[in-house]
Amino acid sequence: MKIISVLLLIMLIHAPVVAKEAVPMAADPQIEKRLMVLSENLRCLVCQNQALSGSDSDFAKDLRREMRDMMKEGKSDQEIIDFLVQRFGDFILFNPPVKSYTLLLWLGPLLLLLLGATTLLLVLRRRGSAANVAAPLSAADHQRAEALLRGLDDQGDKTGNDSNEGRKA
Questions:
Q1: H or E stretch including 158?
Q2: From CA 151, how far away is CA 169, in angstroms rounded?
C-alpha cells in the first residue's frame, strides 16, 4: 500500500501542467484595441466562419502576432488588409469586395428570389385560369342535371330520406 502511495505521489509531482498560459498582449493597449477591431472583420481560414479575433487556432494566433508586428511598424489598417488579401485571397474578408467574379455572390440571392416569385406567379395564374374554364355540358349531362334538380323538390318521396320520417316513428 505504501508503494502505491509513493507511486501516486511521484506521478502527481511530475504530471504535466495542462492549463494554457495567457497569450501575451501588446505592450501598447492602443495596438491591442486596434488589432481586435481589425480582426473582427477577418475570417480565420482554419476555423469554420469564425472571426480571427475569437479563434484559438495556431493560424489565428500567428496572424494576430503578424498583425501586431505590422502595427508596431506603423502600417495602416488598409495596408494590413491588403497584405492579408494578397497572401490569402478575398475569402479572408467577411465582406468581400464587389468585383466581376463576385457579382454572382452579391446578386445571386436576389436573382433566386425573383426567379422563385416569377415561377410562383406563373403557376398560380395557370391554376386559376384552369379552374375558371368550365367544360360545356353535353345534352345527356344536361338532362341528368335537370332530373336531379327536379328530384330535389320531392326528394323525401323518392329517396326515403325524409327528415320528418324519423319524427313519425
A1: helix 155-159
A2: 25
pTM: 0.50
Q: How confident is the model at residue 114 (pLDDT cuts 50, 70, 90)?
A: very high
Residue 75, domain member (yes or no): yes
**59 contacts 45 by C-beta, under 8 angstroms:** yes
Q: Which residue range(s) make up the domain with 17?
A: 12-92
Q: What is Dmax (Cα atoms) for the chain?
A: 110
User: How many domains are contained in the chain?
Assistant: 2
Does 72 fall in a domain? yes
Phi-psi region of 103 (alpha: psi -120 to 50; beta: other; left: phi over 0): alpha
Average pLDDT over residues 91-96: 84
Please check whether residues 106 and 82 belong to one and the same domain.
Answer: no
CA 47 from chain centre, in angstroms, equals: 17
| DSSP character at residue 43 | B
CA neighbours within 13 Å on the CB side: how many for 6?
3
Q: How far is CA 106 from CA 55, 99, 100, 116, 161, in A?
A: 26, 9, 10, 17, 68
- Residue 136 covered by a domain: no
